[in-house]
């Protein structure tokens, strides 16, 4: 009874915090460079917590669905390392934060070697996606879907084809990056660059709710094990590596500040999705599409900071 009461109190406090943070949605704006994303309602703020006893509780607009966008980079990284091996992946992609924006071409072109600095920027993510197992575009997409369904426990999960097509049509920066990387021999995708962009845009368009998001990150926070069966979905060292990238590069050039102010390994996407991992604790999934100037969810970042302060969730 006491535990139940405690949990109810906890739920109430989180609910209040979410509603308090909603005011920050007015300070951001929805991404428009992927045309389909501009339909999102900027006032939305949802959150879900996947807790240790295997239940998921959602708050605010937590039932809404949205696309992963760059949050998918953590999923793709785990999968590419599982499929192609750590050595192969990090032969092509570095491990260092950039301090620059996620889409930067200039940095890549100006470096001595065109090896992308890390897997969380677009150049690195395109390279990582090329190393997901599968001989054809369809096989790679299938591989991704199988993995994401395992991570979320949601067999119906798929990508939003309108968002994927919208990004594929307008992906000029990513197209430029991918061809540059191919020219430099970093990407040697046997499926070709256009099919690779097709896989990448479908990966970014994987569509889900905050609870799905929270379950994914819960698994990364629990050494890669399924919350129900304990089965190893992601090898523990891979889960640890992914979380470390979340701390150093997950929020792009806001990663340092978030590490100090929240101390929660997190990854964001331009849809306004954020996942946060509290080791041995909750998986946090957030959705709020109004973004700050760094491309991170304005209210989502505030919510993470506030949850961390209130419940003392910093890993440091
Ligand atoms: N930061 C992001 O979420 C970027 C993802 C988006 N699909 C892109 O490649 O531009």
Automatic annotation (TrEMBL):
Signal peptide: none annotated. Keywords: Acetylation, Hydrolase. It catalyses: L-glutamine + H2O = L-glutamate + NH4(+). It is an enzyme of class 3 (hydrolase). One of its GO terms (molecular function) is glutaminase activity. Pfam families: Glutaminase (PF04960). GO terms for biological process: glutamate biosynthetic process; L-glutamine catabolic process. Coiled coil: none annotated. Its EC number is 3.5.1.2. It comes from the Bacteria. Homotetramer. Belongs to the glutaminase family. This is Glutaminase.
